[in-house]
Amino acid sequence: MSQTLKLALFGDPVEHSLSPEIHRRFGQQTGIALDYRAVRCRGEDFGPRFAAFIVAGGRGANLTVPLKQAGLGVCQQVAAAARTARAVNTLVRREDGWHGDNTDGSGLMLDLQRLGLDPAGKRVLMIGAGGAAAGVLGPLLDRQPALTVILNRTRERAEALAQKFAHRGVVIGGGFDQAGDLNGFDLLIQATSSGHGQALPPLERGWLDARAVAYDLNYGPAHRPFADWCSRQSLVCHDGLGMLVGQAALAFEIWTGRRPQMDPVLAALRSGQTAP
User: Fold this and answer.
1) Strand order of the sheet with strand 185-190?
2) Is 68 designated active site?
3) Which residues are noted in the entry as NADP(+)-binding (predicted)?
4) What are the structural domains of the chain?
């Protein structure tokens, strides 16, 4: 690719996002010149900011909170994953206009594969029924777990999400007040944003099999409360940094046609290295 590929991340907050660092490393790894910048942008500012990005030669973008639903409005084509989740995290400009996709769920599956955690045939318990849960549920169900249960503080929201995906597998939604008899789950997925306030959803070790594994969609400080709980329960736990790198690798492939390697980038992030 002879010209520099102009890319951006839109959202609020974005100041501490790792995405620019990740994509710099992907560009170095593949020999693709790119200019990837984080643009702080609230919902009401997205239209004019995105229009200015297009005029400046923008060819692809990532969207984070609070813009993932707003991204649907700028797309001429929307991929199935984004339609199902009602959220776009990756935009690419093609000859017929802007295409929107959602790589969150597939990014999670890439990281679970890397960790040797295949949900196929397993009993999966997901905590949370918001946008993060909706974004990963489709690809998770594609792996055909034996059972997926969604628990949420608002029972109706969990039930609605489960109903939306009922045709994809055995999936049940409910509130924490209905979880008393749950047990034997193999994989716990923490999909709430509670950790950003250094809080935890109400969790019970008794819901899980003795050999269960936990995965938090959060990473960094937001992961710490859940990690501490897992440690007290002697529960193997993984954070969502690998998912972040995985969904970024899939976005990079959408923009460039090249799938970068996740492992060296993930290792560099964990060691605190910064790309030159």
Assistant:
1) 171-175, 147-152, 123-127, 185-190, 208-216, 236-238
2) yes
3) 128-132, 152-157, 217, 240
4) 5-102+244-270 (3.40.50.10860), 105-239 (3.40.50.720)
